[in-house]
Amino acid sequence: MSIEFTLKHLETFRAVVIAGSITKASHRIKLSQPSISQQIAKLEEVLTTQLLERNRTGVISLTPAGDYWFKAANDLLDRLAVNVDEYEHRFKNASVVVRLGATPALRGRFTAAAARIAQREPGFVKFELVYALSSAELMEMLRMHKLNFAIVRQPVLEDDRFAFAVEHLFEDQICWCVPAEISRQQLRQAFTPDANKADLHPALSSYVEIDPGVITHKASSDWFRNNLPFAAPTFSAPTFVSSVDFVVEGLATCHIPLSLLPNLTEGQRRKLQIVRVDNMSHQIMLAMPKHLLTLGPYARIFAALVEFCHTQYAPEMTTENSLTLAELLSGTEPADLSSRTERVSEIAGT
Predict the structure, then answer these.
(1) pLDDT per position as a tens digit, 217-250
(2) Does 3.40.190.10 match the CATH number of domain 172-281+320-333?
(3) Does domain 81-170+284-312 fall into CATH 3.40.190.10?
(4) For residue 68, what are the β-bridge partners?
(5) Checking DSSP bridges between strand 164-179 and strand 149-153, what pairing results, if any?
């Protein structure tokens, strides 16, 4: 069989399979749906076989031939990416280009530190920061070599963990974020079955609903429904970062990950109380294509990012105005709060 299709056909085919539908792939690779359909049709014509099956909702599944060519496309495109990476590093002025993918909660303190780490490398050319609302989206971009580093939740790595260098960064716990002006007594009162919302601070009757694309959307909605049934999703926001703005103004409460705290200003943190919620946490990992470990600058950047998270960033994921839900409900203050704050300040060098 003569080769009458191009790498572009294989890249588009792989993008559709990874995204799960032509519609989603269109958003990911910025190509129109008709163009994608034409490329898939051309590939099927050249191979004289059907590769994809589509149901009524547009979700695709692979035929046996499609499964074969998806694996073949992955192998070919991955090997090509390795060659391109090595070529750019060895022959194009030893250039170091870092494309880091993260969720918006990590903007600020984290991404600035990552940029400084990358900039220290000889041959550094560019640092590109790419945001996505979910780890699943970041993982898609990592598989398609649009990123060379990604900060993701552990479960999304399970299917192809062996293709990536992976290190644990921190445990990211989801917290209930409330205005600092609300007394602890009122917070406890809000959890009593016969709580009268007319007697409570108005912010306790409203919460910020996070974008459905964020993985914690359902768990957050369920938590408010079960624990504060009188509270309504009066506000909505696309990210945790924007959710905090409503709380800082004393308008509502919301859920945020602890990893957001180091990225808030001191002024914002003073206006917040943080209540850590049990059974709502994720293990956060750093992932990089494994072949990049053979390239010194990328291996050093990878190791430096891990060290930064372990020694500086994770210890900063707390605040003086913080307690667990159990401590709140029992009316006890954390006994070691002052010493814990001193230890965090010492580690952070503040």
Answers:
(1) 999 999 999 999 999 999 999 999 999 999 999 9
(2) yes
(3) yes
(4) none
(5) unpaired
